[in-house]
Specification:
about 150 residues
């Protein structure tokens, strides 16, 4: 079997992540639900019980399991459901995913068209402002001429 599994010192990896987050040992202990005295033993250990490692993953917002085996970057309907709907607990197939993607593309194109129209309106309004500004300058010049004649 050709499995790419790496050796990982779990305690060291946890300690690195804890330090990255600026989390004290006492706060880390509180969050994972162990006495503070156990933290040093956890950080020194090469291995850890899966249930506790899952809790540490949640607390430190990091998947330590991914350190053992590189994760294949494949697109799946599950991950796409999370990206599209924010909920992967729905049942979504490739056809539904394609439909949702097509709808998202259509909405994007519609929004692009709206942006284009708004830019044209802005350009038109800017041209009107320039004309009005020019008219105002002309009126100011006429007023000055009239004042000089009096």
């Amino acid at each position: 079997m050709d499995v790419d599994v790496k050796y990982v010192h779990v305690g060291e990896a946890i300690n690195r992540r804890r330090n990255e987050l600026g989390l004290s040992k006492s706060e880390f202990a509180r969050r994972i639900g162990v006495p503070q005295q156990h933290v040093n033993r956890i950080l020194e250990r090469e291995t850890m019980e899966t249930k506790r490692l899952v809790r540490v993953c949640e607390v430190l917002d990091f998947n330590f399991f991914s350190l053992f085996c590189p994760v294949q970057h494949q697109i799946s309907a599950y991950l796409a459901a999370v990206a599209l709907e924010g909920n992967a607990h729905n049942i979504i197939g490739d056809a539904e995913l394609a439909s949702q993607l097509a709808q998202a593309r259509s909405e994007t194109e519609s929004q692009k068209e709206t942006v284009k129209l708004l830019k044209e309106q802005i350009d038109s309004l800017n041209a009107q402002i320039n004309r009005l500004d020019s008219n105002l300058k002309d009126k100011d010049a006429i007023i000055e001429l009239l004042k000089e004649r009096r």
